[in-house]
Here is the input.
Amino acid sequence: MVKVGLISLAHMHGISYANALKSIPYAELVGIYDRDGQRRDKYAKEFGVKSFSDLESLLKEVDAVIICSENSLHAEYTIKSAQAGKHVLCEKPLASNLADAEKMVEVCKENNVILQTAFPIRFSTPVVRAKEIIDSGAIGEILAIAGTNHGKMPPGWFLDKELAGGGAVFDHTVHVVDIMRWYLNSEVAQVYAEVDTLLHDVDIDDAGMLTMEFENGVIATLDPCWSRPKTFPTWGDVTMKIVGTKGTLAVDAFAQTGEVFSDVVGHSQYNFWGDDADQAMVKDFIDCIVEKRPPRASGVDGMRATEVALAAYESANQVKPVKLR
Here is the structure.
């Protein structure tokens, strides 16, 4: 039995991850630590687990942790957990700056613990199937990719740059860049980006456009915006159009839905019938611990995606491309 602690529920994905843990017979959600005592006690009661008022006490009772705190606290929680010998699944973006991300990877390696980045899109059936098609050579050599990650504007600390590290460009770039890296087996060499606040009355970016060149010569674009209205049927999308020398491939990670028109809620809704990527990702984390193998999305993967998002801001500030390698 793998005993797991949940560190913070500041990020809404923590609820999904806790539910995923409860459904894995060889994993046990032991308890929750959160600096917000009211939130900690609420969810500890909801999931029927212990509420821990200090991190050290939680770490003494678990084998692994899932971190869903504000981005600025990822490094602190990861480093403390790793130094206590605990495996870590950390929400994305991995850290709010590159130095913290590098330190997280280094400390986890030194303490021989797993550091997995929470990239559930790697476990989406359409995304995985596209990877298989690409690797089979069916569309030939990839020439270009156009991606989107649109969503609704999140509330609370996501709009505080000190806690979040950035706005929509930071929040949404990392998911799709990770998939592009995975598909291409190549790193981003150069980034040019436009970043702005165009859609909401907030003090952080809510719109942007990235153009990237990979080391293997592939050109990619990405639109990572908080452009969905509150009434949109779902939170957003993850799409890619992949152009190869033998054909093109369209990928939509959340296309497994039926549309419902409801007079009760006053707008259309998506009834999702597809697979649960969060569940698959959390199970992979637990299986990695049991089987003593690397995760599908490592801390290094999280660090590389974070590096690209941060380079996008640098490019926008300098109004010129930024070279990464």
The longest strand covers residues 188-196. The chain has two domains: 2-119, 121-277+306-323.
